[in-house]
């Protein structure tokens, strides 16, 4: 028998993705499978997920969920064959472009009901009320799944180990306490030492209070969230559960993000021979309507356009940077707050020969961006982990990042002046001002015209080990700590060398690694 984990999330690539959470869930499931752990992903039945999953069949009619009834469908992820369960409800079925907000950027009114339904579906699986095998561990990710540990405890299902991974503490799922009965939350849990949060109910607080283990995605973020600056009001409750809080840094799916084999880039290259990057640069210039100048320095931006990502400050910093550095070109891929999207488009209109902007979500272009750019600017007010700078490093594109969260642990800083030590892979800067961004990007541009230093930084960045090997072992050890004794043995056995790469299903079709 294999140990079983149910990973519950709102996103998983390639079915649904708005950010790094989606990448992490699928890559973690794959890595668990490769290690001999049976991992199934439970996701909302968004239309894109229903379209993208293969071999869907009904495994349960769920009649009394918050918001009404639903069906639990079992199938497989495209590309990987990872088992997936989709909760198909009329509400989830109406989500189109973005799963959380409408076209005007307002949160959908029924988010609380939808994600409470997802939690109740997970509880029914754990209670053996579906035809799906009961898992040994339920691993909830972010607020969308954070009610599960509380509901399991309320139902007396103490034998199932629960983990909450916090990918982003800024999103908490806080709703009116009056909704508790409708959401199926026991009234005794709506208290200060339960899930009550400033008069509301908080899904995230529920997870923090009731999960057996709380993990977050980098060492630095794990300590930052214990402070008022980064705690988003949850630092107190997290400090109370400090003994249950662990840092488990993410890895990267190196089959998808590898310039040596990536089918989405113009020419493959690797650390020994980086010349293909020149072809990728030309391709990027074409894609963004930029002059095909081989000696231009392309600064890329590729992320959600939000306050977290300091889009406001970056927008203010860019005109002066473009004026100060005539060889700089800018390629921007992103979407998010409409006001920022609009301002990026205005910037492109003001600098038609220097700035290319693509508003929207486009996986292919994201790969082309990392492959073709020289520098990635990734400013953040906070960053739990930060996959984007890692992707850029793996593609020999030097990241310029805020010194926060995961980036403190993954980017080795070349410093803002003076000689560059061996092993530097990027630039970290402090502060949130226009001047801070200006100084950091200028420093990177100056280094980029020192061929020996730059080449060494690129090579060192490309050689970093960001595989899932260590992270997945950490998760499995954590599961073993909280599982029932028999299941704990199974988890521990999966860590033995012979268990790795056991039987399974994984059939990668990397040419299809697109969002459904
Ligand atoms: P976050 O999860 O906070 O958005 P990460 O850097 O960890 O930050 O992950 C972001 C993920 O989303 C990366 O895989 C990145 O390539 C992707 N991404 C962000 N914006 C876009 C976009 N507009 N088009 C394609 N991919 C995007
Ligand atoms: C969140 C964070 C990001 C992290 C990702 C995956 O969206 O903002 O920093 O990399 O989750 O854990």
The global form is: globular
Instruction: List the ions, cofactors and other small molecules found in this model.
Output: adenosine-5'-diphosphate, alpha-D-glucopyranose
CATH architecture type of the largest domain: 3-Layer(aba) Sandwich
Report the top-level CATH class of the largest domain.
Alpha Beta
Low-confidence stretches: 502-516
Number of helices: 20
Q: What brief labels describe this structure?
A:
alpha/beta, binds alpha-D-glucopyranose, globular, 6-stranded parallel β-sheet, 18 strands, 516 residues, binds adenosine-5'-diphosphate, 9-stranded mixed β-sheet, Rossmann fold, single chain
What does this structure look like?
By secondary structure, the chain is of the alpha/beta class. The protein folds into 2 domains: 4-251 and 467-510, Glycogen Phosphorylase B (Rossmann fold, 3-Layer(aba) Sandwich); 276-462, Glycogen Phosphorylase B (Rossmann fold, 3-Layer(aba) Sandwich). The protein is globular and about 65 Å long. Strands 3-4-5-2-1-6-7-11-12 form a 9-stranded mixed β-sheet, sandwiched between helices. It has helices at 20-34, 47-52, 90-93, 111-126, 148-154, 180-183, 203-210, 219-224, 228-231, 235-240, 276-287, 311-324, 338-350, 363-372, 387-394, 405-410, 434-448, 451-462, 469-482, 485-494; strands spanning 4-8, 38-44, 54-65, 68-76, 83-88, 137-141, 161-166, 174-176, 196-197, 200-202, 213-216, 245-247, 297-302, 328-334, 355-359, 375-378, 398-402, 427-429. The protein binds adenosine-5'-diphosphate (ADP) and alpha-D-glucopyranose. Residues 19-21, 23, 302-304, 333-335, 361-363, 366, 385-388 line the site of adenosine-5'-diphosphate.
